[in-house]
Design a protein that fits this description.
By secondary structure, the chain is of the alpha+beta class. It has 2 helices and 5 strands, in the order H-E-E-E-H-E-E. The chain has one domain: Trna Endonuclease, Chain: A, domain 1.
Length: 118
Amino acid sequence: MTNSAKQLGKRGEDLAQKYLFNKGYEILTTNYRYKHAEIDLIVKTKELLVFVEVKCRSNTDFGLPECAVDEKQENRIIKAAEHFLLNSDWENNIRFDIISIIFEQGSYQIEHFEDAFG
């Protein structure tokens, strides 16, 4: 991954955090790692724990960001979420979301896909 791609990803994760915080979610952790998987954001709202994958693009030439989450990545995220749950005392509902961000012309467009997989 190039430095510019990492910077874009970091910027997207920061925007996603602010977006979710403004929607009333509590940010529990960022960049949770387990083996070869990473969960970008783990957040909580009321009785729901949400595992969030953030996908960013500088344009849509190669498709929409949310379409970049394939079955293999979903499975890795689910395994990492299972590991997180084993090491926490969470006993309520969970959900897997995707936040899609497209940066264009000095601006950005953000979309939140709830219950995206799992």
